[in-house]
Structures are given as structure tokens and as C-alpha cells.
Specification:
10 helices, alpha/beta, globular, TIM Barrel
């Protein structure tokens, strides 16, 4: 796929206030970078990203931390991105089709403790900043409770070492108050929500539900898709760059060829909403499907994030 050209990206960043894209900025731009996409992802394009999520390692069938969580070549790629852009690296565990081992591990206190200790050792040894749990999905209340125990125990172990803990949650999911208290960030998957899978209106409703439940706004990172889904068959998806290659897309376009996606205008509006409501940042699934040049979705988010946050509207 096409990628952002470095001179163009540097020109964008030069227009941003100092600290906007630095890793220490309060408003984060969090991007998932799946291991299998790295050959097609230009590391130079990641300058706006504050937190890069290495997707992903899997809990073993026996409930253990894997001996080789990531391919060594992939780990070196991620570390190069960290060095080039001074971003934070986080190890993602799980994901769709990669979550089978969670139930076994979380149900056993000894397995949980061993997993957390091994994960912390790996993160520390490789200069990582934290761990991101993406269990898709706990199947019952017992697994939901075990999920919270994992988050709490990980937080105790990781926070003592200066490491962060985040969790990815689907738009229908929830944690109990202990789970929300344990994590530093929630990567809220406000996509795959029906026929038009990522509308502004649907996103707004999900965020307001989390806020109403007492989740601190600063812990929420608003998830946005860099892909589209076919409206008549949501099992069919295509990356934004692929759709742009097949259809002439304008910045205010969210539909083409029977697919629904988020174009630059919608992503700007969502970023503005996130800042207006004090959210902790934006989360992207996933970085390799972006479009190069003026139509880049990452560019649109970064530009909007640089604008002073508007006042929240009166309810």
C-alpha cells in the first residue's frame, strides 16, 4: 500500500505546537501495528504516534506467557520506531482469534501470577512501556471476574516498575469499578457497530455510556478504524488505502463501493469530540491501512489534535 512521504509528514509536524507529538503529551495518538503488516509499514510515517501497540503475542494453550512473544525481527522493527520517534512501545496480548488462552490463564491464581511476572520481565528487558490486554471476549461472568483480577494483579506488578497497563474493550463491554481503577487507559473499540459500523452518532452514544458509568474521561482512548466494512456484509472489510485506490474519495466521504468507513472529515470531528470531552486520546486500528499524502487519516487526526481543545458543550 502507499505510505506517507517523509517530507510531507515533517512539514505537517512543523506546523504543530511543540510537544504535540511528543511521547509525554497528555493527549495520546495510539496506533496498533500488527506484526504481519510491518513489511508494508514505513516506520518514518509514525511521527504523530505517541504510543505504538505491538500486535500481538498470545497466551499459550496452557495459560503461560510465550517463550518467544514476538518474532525477534519484528521486535527490532518496533524498537527502531521507538528510537526514531521517541514513542512508547506496548506489548499487546490477545486480539481477535488470538484470545483462546486467556480463560485458562486467568482462572488459575498461580498461572495469573506467573504470566504477569514473565510479562513484566519481558517488557523491562526490552525497554517497553507497558502491556495492553485485548481479550476478545470473556464468555461469562466468571471469565469477566477473572479478567478484572488479571488487570488488578498486572497493575500492582507493573506500576511498581513504572510500567503501564491498558485494556481494549469492545463497544458492548464493561468492567466493574475495580477494573477501571486498575488500568491506565481503555482503548475503546468504537467500530464494528452494525451496518454503518463506525458512525459519529454511534460512537458518541458509547462514549457517553462509559462516562455515565463513572469511567474517568482521561482513561478513554477513542478507537477509530482505518478500514471500511461492506454495509451488506460486515464480514467483508478493506483498508482505507485500498478503497481509495478503487474509488475517488473526497475528505468528507464515508461511503464508497458499498463500504462504510471514516474519512478525514469524520476523523477530525471524532478527534475534536475526544478533546472537547477530555478523553485521553485516539486509538487506531490499524496503521498499515492508511493512505499516503493529503488524504492520510493519521495526518487528519494529528492536525486536529494540534488545535486547542474547544470547550465542552452544555448538556
Amino acid at each position: 500500500m502507499r505510505r506517507l512521504m517523509r517530507p510531507l509528514l515533517l512539514a505537517v509536524l512543523a506546523c504543530l505546537p511543540a510537544g504535540t507529538t511528543a511521547a509525554g503529551d497528555a493527549f495520546r495518538i495510539v496506533g496498533y501495528a500488527p506484526e504481519w503488516t510491518l513489511a508494508n509499514l514505513n516506520v518514518a510515517t509514525l511521527a504523530p504516534v505517541t504510543d505504538l501497540l505491538m500486535f500481538s503475542c498470545q497466551v499459550t494453550a496452557g495459560g503461560a506467557f510465550p517463550q518467544v512473544p514476538l518474532n525477534p525481527e519484528s521486535l527490532a522493527w518496533y524498537q527502531k520506531a521507538r528510537e526514531l520517534h521517541a514513542l512508547r512501545l506496548h506489548l499487546c496480548v490477545g486480539g481477535w482469534g488470538r484470545s483462546d488462552g486467556f480463560a485458562t490463564m486467568t482462572a488459575d491464581p498461580e498461572k495469573r501470577a506467573a504470566f504477569v511476572a514473565d510479562a513484566a520481565a519481558y517488557c523491562t528487558a526490552n525497554g517497553l512501556h507497558g502491556i495492553d490486554y485485548d481479550w476478545e471476549f470473556p464468555a461469562n461472568r466468571a471469565e469477566e471476574s477473572a479478567h478484572v483480577l488479571l488487570l488488578e494483579e498486572t497493575a500492582v506488578h507493573f506500576h511498581a516498575r513504572g510500567l503501564e497497563v491498558s485494556v481494549a474493550l469492545g463497544w458492548t463491554q464493561a468492567l466493574d469499578p475495580r477494573g477501571y481503577a486498575a488500568v491506565d487507559r481503555i482503548h475503546l473499540m468504537t467500530y464494528d457497530m452494525g451496518r454503518k459500523h463506525a458512525t459519529f452518532r454511534a460512537m458518541e452514544g458509547v462514549v457517553r455510556r462509559f462516562l455515565k458509568e463513572g469511567v474517568p474521561a482521561s482513561k478513554l482512548c477513542l478507537g477509530v478504524p482505518f478500514y471500511g466494512r461492506r454495509m451488506e456484509d460486515n464480514d467483508v472489510s478493506a483498508g482505507y488505502a485500498t478503497l481509495a485506490a478503487a474509488h475517488p474519495l473526497k475528505p468528507d466521504t464515508d461511503e464508497a463501493g458499498g463500504f462504510y468507513f471514516n474519512g478525514p472529515k469524520t476523523l477530525r470531528a471524532k478527534t475534536r469530540f475526544a478533546r472537547q470531552h477530555g478523553l485521553g486520546g485516539m486509538m487506531i486500528w490499524e496503521l498499515s491501512t492508511d493512505l499516503a499524502g493529503e488524504g492520510s487519516l493519521l495526518r487528519a487526526i494529528a492536525q486536529e489534535a494540534a488545535i486547542p481543545a474547544p470547550s465542552a458543550p452544555k448538556e
